[in-house]
Write a structure and sequence with these properties.
single chain; Calcium-transporting ATPase, cytoplasmic transduction domain A; Calcium-transporting ATPase, cytoplasmic domain N; nine-stranded mixed β-sheet; nine-stranded antiparallel β-sheet; about 45% helix; elongated; nucleotide-binding; transmembrane helix
Length: about 1250
């Protein structure tokens, strides 16, 4: 009853603190640390001295250590200006314009110094400002982390809240449950009586199982704030290093200096920064390492400076333009020398400037070369870099404010932490992903179980359901096994044809089941997503073998290290919540509670379970806990030995299937065959599986074993673990199999769909995880990175080779496995079956060595999917670096923990998940997203757009600057290299900064070849970026050619149309001012109309910018011409009085613009008519109104746009359909063969006449 449960729960919470786990655990968790040699301390590598509870001594040398604040910014107040200037002038164009600005102060400059210096200052200033803004955002994120609060001892037994950044070495802190450790701490005490605490290190190593830490016996009594008034101690330990799994030190502690004793320290007492306190109310610890000295920060790499491939290629384009500049400058200087020598009268001039000396033509030619470098410098687009900076910044704002990239659950959104890599998002070919917290959401759900060889909770998965819908058949309920055994609706069974009535009945039953599932979810049972009426609501008591059922549920309720706690979310409920080392244990306890076996409380020696007996009544039973043989990575199993109320002794065991099966007795294998089939089916669904077994132990057998076990447990030395393992083997045998369970390591919402869409877009995904192989493979199936028909290569060291620990033998073993796998691929390359590679940590360590890594990568790249298990943070970074180097492909790394920082920084693009874990991954990333599923839209939509926008923008910049710069050169040739400048100096400034800047920015920010919905419908469009189609050298040279042709047309038509005839009614002909203004006007019109032809998605902003830029040119002419002649010079009232009234001016402008744009227009018509690209076809279909979105042609194009994939949901459905069709065919052939070979059929065929009569 609820009224009776509440006080019990309160008592359970209090008893929780008094449990002594050290008396229960038997293996290495609580063995005493080995003694550390005192002679080591004070020597190099062991110089750290920490005065506990006396941090004032660490304010001065030699014991002054770094502060606890952590920074990820690129600059500080002192380094910002010099470092940012260095970054800007690393760019070739900026360096060139710095030289030009310096030369502008001399007499060589054809323009005023201001017109050359002002654009450079503006361009560099905007870029530096943008860098400063982005670094300011990093600073704010650092400030958020450094400002987290923790309780710190300030004296007299008082603790106050202080920010992390104020912590110093020696401070005593109190960390509460579910809080992160602010620095590396030495554990002093905890809420448990024996100083145990549970730590979640998922943010460091990706493992979900909790780590057990225990303080020293000497500091146990300091478990209350007031007691720290008298606490003093000294820690002597190793210097700061990056090893997460080692710690060496001694604690010198005593009531006074005279009786101080040195206690050895190990990793069991060491708490790492950014790990999390779980299942423990509080701990006290002393700060040992702070800030940059902490192990997690030591494992992080310095944030590299990343440049996109497009930007690096743009540098090469600048080199080409610079070569063109040198060429035409050389031509101009040579021409100047030649014509000066031919025109003898020039040598008679007495008044010449310093740059022109007819008497010394070689010197004059060299000076003319320098002058030409300045004059034709507009070939180099000075505003290109700043325009790209502005565009990328605005693109990042659009990404940050995309409502489809906002996670309502967490309230977080996608954030571009740097805008330098926007276009890289559209060229990714390889994704290297973490598992825990990235693909999964760290929540377990109980899904299925197999008891007595019968599977329960057997709803079909999404793969089978999708296949059945496409095949237009029902396979939810009507399946039969070839062997005639009872089976669940899984792949081990066959389908038969069914009637329409049966289909209707099946669908109704499915709907009922879905209603049951919905009811479960609505009831708020977290961790329990099970659907089967045969077990729910006490229905299992009507089964044929209730004893085995009850034993199965007892294993679930007793074989664990969990603790029941009051359910604060449902205060009046009789349902309990649980805390345990692993999320699987919590899930099992919740499931046992739902099935009627509620683990209700625990004492030091007993466990109490409320059970449902065969009469359907609830009874509370006490089980004496005799021994607990805990789970470890080597044992792969866990056992408890208990004595029930009748005095019988049972061993309950759970573990990996192969481990348990090897320990079954001859009479315990009754259900092994059926259970094995169910395990295979569960694994294909991506579920984690575990097998349950038990054994009844005689009293005499237990007494004998317990004596041996106690002796082994008392051993102190390196052989202790081996002795305990051997003794445990003696009792964990002759087991009786009960069944298996399957839990779902729940994927984040939309992960499978996201992976499917990314695969269709042509991306390969590698999974790098610190988890064990079995878990990683399960997630591989759940996320559709693996499928049942794949050839799965397992790369791991054999036990014999691993035990010898000889490097050469291990290398040979790995090489042999790699070669064998490659031979399989070569022999079966004609088949469509895909290949996948699974590598464990030790094998990976060998495979990444210099002499093997090429063989390994050659095999890995060939496989459709690669899963690396037990991977350390440094191995993640190394794999990323090698893949990037070996394949030359664009790599993206995504993770959520501090163990992913190296990988994120090493990849071309690093993405951090801003989920429930710490901020280390986010702070090191280029982009942060709330969940993995947002990667789909970030890449396929924004990546595609950004790549195409930036590519178009750069090509257009090259085009317009060639058009503008070469007209100056052509006029120079026309005037026989006289040195006259066609345009006014302020025309030159206006062109890039004002008259053509806004349209190109709108192109880079707002252009869309197709809408976001179509990008997702046609993922093959993404491959345009992977292939580099829009910024290939073919396109670059094409646009350069277009610019050269356009400049020729503009120069020739303006000169040869205006020169021969009168310009005005009075017979006046054009002079250089008229020709310059008309030519400049045609350029402004042409380049702005050209961008209108490029744009495929117009908005009102683009119309305003394009036509407004042209209109602003005339406004500028009016104002500039209205200035006094000493300022406007030859442009004084030029538009109003000379050019504007002349019809010839307007006719020439119209004629030149049309002819200049005609070549590109013809090219565009030919390409779209005869050689259309994918986006052209879609644009014609959608915007040309040829078809509607649900038309047959549209659906056909949508289907053909998906790249044939070997991974992902769609690929698994296709493979499942082939499998089911094959099964159906086999079933039909079996039926036909059975009928053909039946006696009745033979009698009919042998006596046809008799039968007829």
């Amino acid at each position: 009853m609820p009224t009776q449960q509440s006080p019990n729960n309160h008592q359970q919470t209090n008893n929780k603190k008094r449990l002594k786990w050290s008396n229960l655990y038997t293996f290495s968790c609580f063995k005493p640390p080995k003694n550390n040699h005192l002679s080591d301390f004070g020597q190099p590598g062991f110089t750290r001295v920490v005065f506990c509870n006396d941090s004032s001594k660490h304010k001065t040398k030699p014991y002054k250590y770094c502060k606890n604040d952590v920074t990820t910014t690129k600059y500080n107040v002192i380094t910002f200006l010099p470092k940012s200037l260095f970054e800007q002038f690393r760019r070739v164009a900026n360096l060139y314009f710095l030289l030009v600005a310096a030369l502008s102060a001399t007499s060589l400059a054809p323009f005023s110094a201001l017109s050359l210096i002002a654009p450079l200052v503006f361009v560099v200033g905007v870029s530096i400002l943008k860098e400063g803004v982005e670094d300011w955002h990093r600073f704010l994120q650092d400030l958020e982390v450094n400002s987290r609060k923790v309780r710190v001892h300030v004296g007299d037994g008082k603790f106050v809240d202080r920010s992390w950044k104020t912590l110093r070495v020696g401070d005593v802190v109190k960390v509460n449950k579910n809080e992160y450790f602010p620095s590396d701490l030495l554990l002093l005490s905890s809420s448990y009586e024996d100083g145990v605490c549970y730590v979640e290190t998922m943010n460091l190593d990706g493992e979900t199982n909790l780590k057990i830490k225990r303080c020293l016996e000497c500091t146990l009594r300091f478990d209350d704030e007031a007691k720290f008034d008298v606490f003093k101690a000294v820690v002597r330990c190793e210097d700061p290093n990056s090893s997460l799994y080692t710690f060496v030190g001694n604690l010198e502690f005593g009531e006074n200096i005279a009786n101080e004793v040195s206690f050895p320290l190990s990793t069991s007492q060491f708490l790492l920064r950014d790990s999390k306190l779980q299942n423990t109310d509080y701990v006290y610890g002393v700060v040992v390492f702070t800030g940059g000295d902490t192990k997690v920060v030591r494992n992080s790499m310095k944030s590299p400076s990343k440049r996109s491939r497009v930007e690096r290629k743009m540098d090469h384009v600048i080199y080409v333009l610079f070569f063109m500049l040198l060429l035409i400058s050389l031509i101009a200087s040579i021409g100047s020398v030649v014509y000066t020598d031919q025109w003898w009268y020039l040598q008679l001039m007495d008044d010449t400037d310093a740059s022109f000396d007819p008497g010394n033509p070689l010197v004059s030619g060299f000076l003319q070369f320098l002058r030409a470098l300045i004059l034709y410098g507009y070939l180099i687009p000075i505003s290109l870099y700043v325009s790209i900076e502005v565009v990328k910044f605005l693109q990042a704002m659009l990404i940050n404010n995309d409502q489809h990239l906002f996670d309502e659950t967490s309230g977080k959104k996608v954030e571009a932490r740097t805008s330098n890599l926007n276009e890289e998002l559209g060229q990714v070919e390889m994704i290297l992903s973490d598992k825990t917290g990235t693909l999964t959401c760290n929540q377990m759900e109980f899904r299925k179980c197999s008891i007595e060889g019968i599977s329960y909770g057997g709803d079909v998965n999404e793969i089978v359901r999708a296949a059945s819908q496409r095949m237009n058949i029902d396979i939810e309920s009507y399946r039969f096994n070839l062997d005639g055994e009872d089976s669940t609706p899984r792949d081990s069974v066959e389908m038969v044809e069914i009637t329409s009535d049966q289909v209707l009945e099946s669908k109704n039953s499915v709907l009922d089941g879905e209603h049951d599932t919905k009811s479960l979810r609505d009831s708020g049972i977290k961790g329990f997503n099970f659907r089967d009426r045969r077990l729910m609501n006490k229905m299992w008591i009507h089964g044929s073998n209730v004893w085995d059922m009850m034993m199965f549920f007892r294993v679930m309720a007793l074989c664990h290290t969990g603790i029941p706690v009051e359910n604060e979310e449902q205060p009046g409920s009789n349902k309990l919540k649980y805390e345990a080392e692993s999320p699987e244990e919590v899930t099992f306890l919740i499931a046992a509670q739902e099935f009627g076996f509620q683990f209700c409380r625990r004492t030091q020696s007993s466990m109490f379970v409320k059970e449902i007996d065969p009469s359907a009544s609830e009874v509370e039973r006490e089980y004496k806990l005799l021994n607990l043989l805990e789970f470890s990575s080597s044992r792969k199993r866990m056992s408890v030995i208990v004595r029930d109320e009748s005095g019988q002794i049972f061993l309950f065991c759970k573990g990996a299937d192969n481990i348990i099966f090897d320990r079954l007795g001859d009479g315990g294998r009754t259900y092994q065959h059926a259970t094995t089939m169910h395990l295979a089916n569960y694994a294909e669904d991506g579920l984690r599986t575990m097998v349950f077994a038990y054994k009844k132990i005689k009293d005499s057998e237990y007494e004998e074993w317990s004596s041996s076990f106690s002796k082994a447990k008392a051993v102190i030395g390196p052989e202790r673990d081996e002795l305990l393992e051997n003794v445990s083997e003696n009792i964990e045998k002759d087991l009786v199999l009960l069944g298996a369970v399957a839990v779902d390591d729940k994927l984040q919402d939309g992960v499978a769909e996201c992976i499917d869409k990314l695969a269709q877009a042509g991306l390969k995904i590698w999974l790098l995880t610190g988890d064990k192989k079995e878990t990683a493979v399960n997630i591989g199936f759940a996320s559709s990175l693996l499928r049942h028909d794949m050839h799965l290569f397992h790369l791991s060291l054999s036990r014999d080779v691993e035990s010898k620990n000889q490097l050469k033998a291990m290398k040979d073993d790995i090489l042999n496995q790699i070669e064998a796998s490659r031979q399989v691929i070569i022999n079966e390359k004609t088949k469509d079956d895909p290949f996948a590679l699974v590598v464990d940590g030790k094998a990976l360590e060998i495979a990444l060595r210099n002499d093997i890594q090429d063989n390994f990568l050659q095999l890995a790249v060939t496989c459709a999917s690669v899963i690396c298990c037990r991977v350390s943070p440094k191995q993640k970074a190394l794999i990323t670096r090698l893949v990037k180097k070996y394949t030359g492909k664009m790599t993206l790394a995504i993770g959520d923990g501090a163990n992913d920082v190296g990988m994120i920084q090493e990849a071309d693009i690093g993405i951090g998940i801003s989920g429930m874990e710490g901020m280390q991954a986010v702070m090191a990333s280029d982009f942060s997203i709330p969940q993995f599923r947002f990667l789909e839209r970030l890449l396929i939509v924004h990546g595609h757009w950004c790549y195409k926008r930036i590519s178009k923008m750069i090509l257009y910049f090259v085009y317009k600057n060639i058009v503008f710069g070469l007209t100056l050169f052509y006029y120079e040739m026309y005037s026989r290299f006289s040195g006259d400048v066609l345009y006014d100096g302020w025309y030159m400034v206006m062109f890039n900064l004002f008259l053509t800047s806004l349209p190109v920015i709108s192109l880079g920010v707002l252009e869309q070849d197709v809408s976001s919905d179509i990008c997702l419908q046609f993922p093959a469009l993404y491959q345009q970026g992977q292939k580099g189609i829009f910024f290939s050298w073919k396109r670059i040279i094409g646009w350069m050619g277009n610019g050269i042709l356009t400049s020729l047309v503009i120069s020739i038509l303006n000169v040869y149309v205006l020169s021969p005839s009168a310009f005005r009614k009075g017979g006046q002909v054009v002079d250089i001012a008229h020709l310059g203004l008309t030519t400049y006007t045609t350029i402004v019109w042409t380049v702005n109309c050209q961008i209108a032809l490029i744009i495929t998605h117009f908005t009102w902003i683009q119309h305003i910018f394009i036509w407004g830029s042209i209109f602003s040119w005339y406004i500028f002419l009016l104002f500039y011409g209205a200035l006094p002649p000493e300022y406007s010079k030859r442009e004084y009232k030029l538009l109003i009085e000379a050019v504007g009234p002349a019809p010839m001016y307007w006719i020439v402008v119209l004629l030149v613009v049309v002819i200049s744009l005609l070549p590109y227009f013809i090219y565009m018509v030919i390409q779209r008519s005869f050689y259309p690209m994918d986006d052209h076809v879609i644009q014609e279909m959608k915007y040309g109104r040829k078809v509607v979105v649900d038309d047959e042609m549209w659906l056909r194009e949508e289907k053909s746009s998906r790249k044939p994939t070997q991974i992902g949901f769609s690929a698994r459905v296709d493979a499942k359909i082939l499998y089911l069709k094959d099964q159906l065919h086999r079933k039909k052939m079996f039926i036909i063969k059975s009928i053909t070979n039946s006696p009745i059929r033979r009698s009919i065929s042998t006596n046809p006449l008799e039968n007829r009569d």
